[in-house]
Amino acid sequence: MNLFVEAWNYLSDGTNWGGATGIEHRLLQHVWYSFLTVALSAVIAVPLGLVIGHTRRGSAVMVGLANAMRALPTLGLLTFLVLGLGLGLIPPLLALITVGIPPLLAGAYAGIANVPADVVDASRAMGMTESQILLRVEVPNAMPVMLGGLRNATLQVVATATIAAYVNLGGLGRYIFDGLGLHRYDLVLVGAMLVAVLALVLDGILAVAVWASVPGTGRLTRTSADLTRISVVTE
Q: Is 0.90 topped by the overall pTM?
């Protein structure tokens, strides 16, 4: 119980929030690392998943690739990359994209592959090209599943991005590694709590995005209209 009290006292102390080593700065660093990782993972995984899902070719290779990346030990891979590339932001990003790519790849592939065949056939019968079918028909219908993959990738990356502190970078993992080194387990708990809260907040936002993107419900249009009205009123 004392551990939780000490962690709460640390979080409630305003002096621990400001400055280069404060909670606010490290939280922003963690979000930045996570954003870069998810963005790079999406650039690689989403186009590949869309093409495989649309053509139905290469699915076995995709499954093998995703499973192989999931099996990689992230911390061990990070150590190997640091030995080869040195310190800096590149090794953690390369290690973290092995966590972000599999759910994004699976989400893009599954979303496109599960679009009803009669919808695709009707689009071809209307004279649409393959790229038009993919971008105008399949992607909008697959959006909830694709966003579900983004949701899973974001949660896994946010949780794993603490390893950046292992190579002397910042982020919320700094509290965990520093706390272990100093035997300050209240700091370890602080880092774990902050990562958990960040993950829950992002998960809630993406859950709303998944809910709003379901085709045929009009939720996305209504949500956009509501946000427009709110901005007009506030102005």
A: no
Residues 12 and 51: their CA atoms lie apart, in Å, by 49
How many residues are recorded in the chain? Answer: 235
Query: What single string gives the DSSP state of each residue in 2-55?
Result: HHHHHHHHHHH-GGGTSSTTSHHHHHHHHHHHHHHHHHHHHHHHHHHHHHHHHH
**For 152-166, how does the pLDDT look when each residue is reduced to its tens digit (9 = 90+)?**
999 999 999 999 998
* Degrees to nearest 5, angle at CA 26 with 86 and 89: 20
Instruction: Please tell me the distance from the alpha carbon of residue 212 to that of residue 225, in angstroms, as a whole number.
Output: 12
Q: Helix, strand or coil for residue 169?
A: coil
Q: Alpha-carbon distance 70 to 111, whole Å? A: 20
Contact 176, 188 (CB under 8 A): yes
